[in-house]
Specification:
Layout: H1 14-25, E1 29-35, E2 38-43, H2 44-61, E3 68-72, H3 77-88, E4 92-96, H4 102-112, E5 116-119, H5 122-131, E6 140-143, E7 157-159, H6 160-173, H7 177-184, E8 190-195, E9 205-209, H8 210-224, E10 231-233, H9 241-254, E11 257-260, H10 267-274, E12 278-280, H11 283-299, H12 302-323, H13 330-351, E13 358-361, H14 368-376, E14 381-387, E15 392-396, E16 409-410, E17 415-418, E18 423-427, E19 434-435, H15 439-445, E20 452-460, E21 466-471, E22 476-477, E23 483-484, H16 486-494, E24 499-505, E25 512-518, H17 520-529, H18 536-541, H19 544-561, E26 572-577, H20 597-603, H21 605-611, E27 617-625, E28 631-642, H22 649-654
Parallel strand pairs: 1-11, 3-4, 3-5, 5-6, 6-7, 10-11, 12-13, 13-14, 25-26
Antiparallel strand pairs: 1-2, 8-9, 9-19, 14-15, 15-16, 17-18, 18-20, 20-21, 22-23, 24-25, 26-28, 27-28
Helix pairs in contact: 1-2, 2-3, 2-6, 4-5, 8-9, 11-17, 12-13, 12-14
């Protein structure tokens, strides 16, 4: 880290760190945003001026210490600055997922007791107007972009630019207000409240202090040697803990610049233009990038396909050893060098990852095959084990000892232990304060001496690497006693570009079966090259040729599992391709795209029963919700297909 990195002694809040960054690196860029194809930049001094005006304007509106202020929109510099402005006043920002439907928003606004909201645009305003009668504590809404707002004349709506102008007048009349407010903030104060994804029930409000975020962010920066010259693209939801550590805490601690994409549709293009040195993405992003790559390869000329597959075989064999500076023969180094010129470097450039020095993935387990693919290219991709309740960092894979099957070793100042029943627990400076208005859940999760129950099953190996098996409550056994780890199986299935999502079943059953969601882009591309006609997802998903395509993927997973001493008995016997994509709007996924197993099992109980009945088809009717709130009914007759299972290691040994 830079020698100018703020000292942790007195700079214990983001408002204080903002003042220090102005002093140390005021003319350096702090924020960027792409607008109509042009990158706009703000220095630390300019960010401080914008934040000061907004803080004073919010104070003039009536925001005071202890208030909850909801913040919602895409990644925008002004929304990040709004969080700091709110914190300066002793209030607590509550980021909300921007794609939440009104009912989801209503729950969070009501539960958080939000008095104020700061949002991006008309879309978010319309959602709030729809739920306003059900959120009587919401008094005022500030919005950034005026487009489409000409005829909105409600007195409780204010344009952010007008609030800032009012703030400058307030500042002139009260010249000591801002400095006094910054000085009153303390590391032990609640800095933010983030809601969990609600995988197993209603989302919980996780209260995190400045100390939680700043100490944890600083420790992570020390471990990776991050400094003020890093570049980071902020494209993940502001309501997610990862964004608040990588795009906020570590930026404030080290002084590096954070860039916001023009829109969610331009992220890949913007990623290439920024060329970040520090990058984070959940597994689904890496899976999506890999799908894009494989689609392009399938469309390429035969010679290019051959070259790609040849050099990727070289990369899989020696790429990780070269990345970790381990001994590799001269011949293989020469092949890899040539592969880098012809394949690896151009591929990383297309993906916008050429300049990445450190890349992370977390949120859920990444498939080992996907992980190895990226590291083989020379990308320093590392897995973390993280949670909102830990302010992200629990374990990180250490340089020089990155193992695809582990989540790494304990992060700085983190203690780990595994209970007798196999549950992973941790204690660290990042441990959350409490769940808002939920003392019982807090007591169940956090012990009096600061240890946190993760709910994950795992173990520590002889080198103190943490291995996560699955969610403790999800790990089960087949009737014959074979271990059933659903997430492990699902991640192996999702390695294939044709499979977007999978849900496996098997606990207390005779065999494993699963639901599959095909990837419409990948399979659609495959179908078009074969002149197959189809009308939308449901039609394509039901075609025999697509079933055969997916069956090959499942069979390959079975062959991989056959060599595993513990899991060879959990090979997949039967599957069906769902008639619709699992969707957060239908309650089947969380906003972070994790499967909500209980709602899926309840909603599709008839399909699960068919998978275990011996039937080869099952009729289904389901309601789907569109982005504009409309609903429709889908009727389909789903095919159920059996897959050949490979002999296990004992059978091979007997032969």
């Amino acid at each position: 880290m830079s020698g100018d990195t703020p000292n942790s002694g007195t700079l214990d809040t983001f408002p204080k760190l903002l003042v220090e960054n102005v002093r140390v690196r005021g003319d350096k860029p702090a924020s960027r945003e792409k607008d109509f194809g042009i990158w706009l930049s703000w220095t630390w001094s300019q960010v401080a001026d914008e934040t000061r005006a907004l803080a004073c304007g919010l104070a003039a509106l009536g925001v005071k210490a202890g208030d909850k202020v909801a913040i919602c929109g895409d990644n925008r510099p002004h929304l990040y600055w709004s969080m700091t402005a709110v914190q300066t006043l002793g209030a607590v920002p509550v980021p909300v997922y921007q794609d939440s439907v009104p009912d989801e928003m209503q729950y969070i606004y009501e539960h958080a007791e939000a008095r104020f909201a700061i949002v991006e645009n008309q879309e978010q305003i319309d959602k709030l107007l729809e739920i306003r009668e059900r959120t009587p504590k919401l008094e005022h809404i500030v919005y950034k972009f005026p487009r489409g707002m000409r005829h909105y004349d409600q007195p409780f709506l204010s344009l952010m630019a007008d609030v800032q102008e009012r703030g400058r007048a307030f500042d002139a009349e009260n010249p000591n207000f801002y400095e006094d407010s910054v000085a009153r903030t303390a590391g032990s104060d609640t800095a933010i409240m983030l809601y969990t994804s609600g995988t197993t029930g209603r989302p919980k409000g996780v209260m995190l202090s400045f100390d939680n975020l700043i100490i944890t962010g600083r420790n992570g920066a020390i471990r990776e040697g991050l400094g003020e010259d890093e570049d980071m693209l902020a494209y993940l939801p502001m309501a997610w803990i990862g964004d608040n550590i990588f795009s906020v805490a570590q930026s404030f601690v080290t002084g590096f610049c954070v860039s916001c994409p023009e829109s969610s549709d331009t992220v890949l293009e913007d990623l290439r233009e920024i060329g970040p040195s520090y990058f984070f993405a959940p597994p689904r992003i890496y899976e999506s990038l890999l799908t894009t790559v494989m689609i392009r390869i399938e469309d390429a000329a035969k010679i290019k396909q051959y070259m790609f597959h040849y050099f990727m075989a070289v990369a899989r064999r020696v790429g990780m050893d070269i990345l970790e500076a381990k001994p590799v023969s001269f011949a293989d180094r020469a092949r890899y060098w040539l592969g880098n010129i012809l394949v690896y470097a151009p591929l990383k450039n297309v993906l916008g990852l050429s300049n990445v020095r450190v890349a992370y993935t977390a949120g859920e387990a990444i498939g080992p095959d996907i992980f190895i693919f990226y590291r083989s290219l020379g990308l320093n991709l590392k897995q973390m084990y993280a949670s909102t309740e830990a302010s992200v960092f629990i374990t990180i894979q250490p340089d020089g000892d990155v193992r695809p099957e582990s989540s790494g070793t304990a992060a700085i100042d983190v203690e780990l232990k595994v209970t007798d029943d196999g549950e992973v627990m941790f204690r660290s400076p990042g441990v959350f304060q409490a769940y808002f208005k939920d003392e019982e859940a807090t007591r169940q999760t956090k012990t009096e001496d600061g240890w946190v129950h993760t709910g994950d099953a795992g173990y520590l190996d002889a080198d103190d690497h943490l291995h996560i098996i699955d969610r403790a409550k999800d790990v089960g056994k087949l009737k014959d006693g074979t271990m059933f780890a659903p997430k492990f199986l699902e991640n192996k299935l999702k390695f294939f570009p044709h499979i977007k999502e999978a849900v496996t079943f098997g606990h207390d059953r005779d065999y494993v079966a699963c639901f599959i969601n095909i990837d419409l882009e990948s399979v659609g591309n495959w179908a078009e090259r074969r002149n197959m006609a189809y009308m939308g997802y449901t039609d394509l998903a039901g075609q025999d040729a697509v079933y055969d395509l997916v069956s090959e993927c499942v069979a390959q997973v079975n062959r991989d599992l056959s060599a595993d001493e513990k899991l060879h008995g959990s090979q997949i016997k039967r599957f069906l391709i769902l008639h619709k994509e699992l969707d957060a709007d239908d309650g089947e996924l969380t906003r972070t795209r994790k499967v909500r197993r209980a709602p899926v099992a309840e909603k599709y109980a008839e399909l699960i029963a068919a998978l275990y009945s011996g039937a080869d088809r099952c009729a289904v009717q389901a309601e789907v919700t569109f982005e504009d709130g409309r609903t429709d009914i889908i009727n389909a007759d789903l095919k159920i297909q059996e897959v050949e299972r490979a002999p296990g290691p004992r059978a091979e040994a007997a032969e």
